[in-house]
């Protein structure tokens, strides 16, 4: 609504959402939408861009020139097999969206409840229900995210988006959600998918619980909090 009022085009990177949650470009007033095949188990290297054709019509300028493929927008021989694979992956994702979302939400909640039943100072990042069914982002107080990842080397988890995995800066997304730097640095993102099982979720929970407890045993800050010390009142000396 805001972009329409100001005459600004609205583009969204929906790579994580397409195939997992319903997306209606008309209802959401989306003018441009990016999506990627590999996020729905399609071939890697394939993507698509939705461009609104009316109300308003979006006109783009090409950045690649040559044979005039794709109505002059992107010249170059088309990857037909990749396109077909992308289309089939999207078709399957749409057909299974409702049942798969229900299954993944159950797995996500199972993991969350198992972790919070065994560990304290766990903080959920993002809305408790208005989120992707397969996504769980948690901050573990008094544990450094990178150390925690090293402690659960058998699990494929991340402390930030794959796009910024080389950066040690806390996630700008978590910062925008109001998460402080300390908790942002202690965040871990869990992603569940089509082939994730209940047994794998339980195993992941066991590994995380063990690693967090082990790291907190070495944390003087956690020990102080357990003893009832209010860390905000502590005057730290510089060296």
Automatic annotation (TrEMBL):
Enzyme Commission number(s) of this protein: 2.8.1.7
Enzyme type, top EC level: transferase
Gene3D superfamilies recorded: Aspartate Aminotransferase, domain 1, Type I PLP-dependent aspartate aminotransferase-like (Major domain)
GO MF annotations, alphabetized: cysteine desulfurase activity; iron-sulfur cluster binding; metal ion binding
Matches recorded under InterPro entries: Aminotrans_V_dom, Aminotrans_V_PyrdxlP_BS, PyrdxlP-dep_Trfase, PyrdxlP-dep_Trfase_major, PyrdxlP-dep_Trfase_small
Keyword Metal-binding: yes
Record keyword Lyase present: no
Keywords: Iron, Iron-sulfur, Metal-binding, Pyridoxal phosphate
Limits of the Aminotransferase class V domain: 2-203
A matching Pfam family: Aminotran_5
Cofactor field: pyridoxal 5'-phosphate
Family affiliation: Belongs to the class-V pyridoxal-phosphate-dependent aminotransferase family. NifS/IscS subfamily.
Protein name: cysteine desulfurase
Organism of derivation: marine metagenome
Organismal lineage: unclassified sequences, metagenomes, ecological metagenomes
């Amino acid at each position: 609504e805001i972009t329409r009022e100001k005459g600004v085009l609205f583009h969204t990177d929906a790579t994580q959402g397409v195939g997992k949650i319903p997306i209606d470009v008309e209802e959401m007033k989306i003018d441009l939408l990016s999506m990627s095949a590999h996020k729905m188990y399609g071939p890697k290297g394939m993507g698509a861009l939705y461009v609104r054709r009316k109300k308003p019509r979006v006109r783009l300028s090409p950045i690649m020139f040559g044979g005039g493929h794709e109505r002059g927008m992107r010249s170059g021989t088309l990857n037909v097999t990749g396109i077909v694979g992308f289309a089939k992956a999207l078709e399957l994702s749409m057909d299974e969206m409702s049942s798969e979302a229900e299954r993944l939400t159950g797995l996500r909640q199972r993991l969350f409840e198992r972790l919070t039943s065994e560990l304290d100072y766990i903080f959920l990042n993002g809305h408790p229900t208005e989120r992707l069914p397969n996504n769980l982002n948690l901050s573990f107080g008094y544990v450094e995210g990178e150390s925690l990842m090293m402690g659960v080397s058998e699990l494929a988890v991340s402390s930030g988006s794959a796009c910024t995995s080389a950066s040690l800066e806390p996630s700008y997304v978590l910062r925008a959600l109001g998460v402080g730097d300390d908790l942002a640095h202690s965040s871990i993102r869990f992603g569940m998918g089509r082939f994730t099982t209940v047994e794998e979720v339980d195993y992941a929970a066991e590994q995380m619980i063990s690693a967090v407890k082990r790291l907190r045993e070495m944390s003087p800050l956690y020990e102080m909090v357990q003893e009832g010390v209010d860390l905000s009142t502590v005057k730290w000396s510089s060296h």
